[in-house]
Amino acid sequence: MKVDSNTAAVVTGGASGLGAATARALAARGAKVAIFDLQAEKGEAIAKEIGGVFCEVNVTDDGSVDAGFEKARAAHGQERILVNCAGTGNAIKTASRSKTDGSIKHFPLDAFNWIIQINLVGTFRCIAKSAAGMLTLDPMEDGERGAIVNTASVAAEDGQIGQAAYSASKGGVVGMTLPIARDLMSEGIRVNTILPGIFNTPLMNAAPQAVKDALAASVPFPKRLGNAEEYAMLAMTMIECGYFNGEDVRLDGAIRMAPR
């Protein structure tokens, strides 16, 4: 797909990290970008920087997502590109014993469901609503109507201790990529997913330097954390390469996560 000033795009989680880098990359090609996020101050700042529009969106809420797409399309027209970066995580063991008093507890199911709702259901919600909109577009010269890029994680394949919910949610994103690509193939909409490794995002920046150094040392090569711009490079390749479809691609410096 050619990305230019006639292209409208939506990036969820676009106020920071991987999403912000992708929003900037799309805007650098001339695309009109709408940022979906709950971080209003940061989102407005990125939107102003790239000449886009910010939409305060909670991906777990139907009405909020509908309102976001309505605002984005009123400003830029129907999007041909959707990049899903909105997500979160937690770290809780399935069942555990207290080291102090020996009491036993299990993973609270509401905390498990919260991760699934944001990372998996939220991603699917945005895909379904965006794809329905893309179906209204005239196909381009090669028959293509749109491109969708999702964000999973290497935890989808080698989740660590405490990552049952996170790994399940990201594994779900990986698992639904090919079926959705097949659902949309006759309409000329491509769907791909990136599985990032350990990236230097705002969340990671909050960690102590010693922790970040240890994580970087665990990466086979290059021995550093990934940069958000590298995620954006792969996202742009998935968008612009018309033969890229139905794929789940690790972007991780060849790391395979240890149990802890």
UniProtKB/TrEMBL annotation:
Protein name: SDR family NAD(P)-dependent oxidoreductase
Residues annotated as transmembrane: none
Family: Belongs to the short-chain dehydrogenases/reductases (SDR) family.
Keywords annotated in UniProt: Oxidoreductase
Cross-referenced PANTHER family: 17-BETA-HYDROXYSTEROID DEHYDROGENASE 14-RELATED, SHORT-CHAIN DEHYDROGENASE/REDUCTASE
Single Gene Ontology MF annotation: oxidoreductase activity
Domain of life: Bacteria
Pfam families linked to this entry: adh_short
